[in-house]
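Assemble and predict.
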Amino acid sequence: MIYHLTIILLCQLAGEFLSQSLDLIVPGPVVGMIILLALFLSVPKIAAAIQPTALGLLSHLSLLFVPAGVGIVGHLDRLGSDGIPILIALGISTALAITVAALVFVGVNRLVGGGK
Amino acid sequence: MTNFPEIWTYLSQEPLLWLTATLLAYAVGDTLFLKSGKRPYVNPVLIAVVLLAVLLWATDVSYPTYFEGAKFVHFMLGPATVALAAPLYMNLDKVRTAALPMIAALVAGSVTAIISVLAVAYLMGVRGEVLLSLAPKSVTAPVALGVSEAIGGSPTLTAVLVILTGVMGAVMGSPLLTFLGITDWRARGFALGVASHGIGTARAFQVNETAGAFAGIGMGLNAILTALIAPLIISLFV
């Protein structure tokens, strides 16, 4: 498992390096994900080995957002007098974005005759 | 024997206590979530955050002190993002056949997220820096902060808005998609990832692995697209 985690960290490190040195808008970990995917595609054996560790990391993905979440509580007052309008705008916009993305996905999938 | 206040003074300054508290608070949230039959509004992130915020407030411990312990958990966000390659690899055939629906849904969802939040907030009287900070709220935090800065918003405020959007998407996503009659796991996951980044993706993984894989792709692609089009949309509006 330590070896697998090392490979994941190496991918992240390479991703951070590329993201910084090429001034990419994509953050390092996302570049790291693409590197790991490329590694999986070129050496399927690695994919089979790392799969359990990677899925283990993802099984409690929610937990990883808790520290940042606690951090925003102290900043809630920054919303100030705009607090209620902002919450309403976020709510409506999030609902709309989910609705539009899902309906367009299903609609286009039907148009191109894609299955499930 | 050292008395309790002294032990507390020692422990409350040490990473161990706050790392343990973070895991415990999450365990409480996750247990409630499972006990509720995985109801979306019983969100483990939200429960853990509220518990910890109350605890910090009650014990008068500052966020930087708390973060000394919690940073170990926070750090794992990076490796976890890299690990998204695993479900992506397993679902690669599904991803290949869904390229067109994904691109269409990405563009439509991304543009809707940016324009609708600006429009609603503007109509309700929000102006200036606060309005601009709203534009990148649907994308993963590191990208959102960069975009916010580039378009003249406040990165700190954007960080707050990003987390709020993530929790909202995770809570309302499942009931909303069910109400819309969407049964395709790919569409459900992708929409959650596009609209509410990592927290939406985490929620998608709780429900279905294919949904999780597509949410991860949606999150990654929208980070790129929003960074490109948010400044463009802002220049049209402002």
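Residues 79-116 of chain A form one domain.
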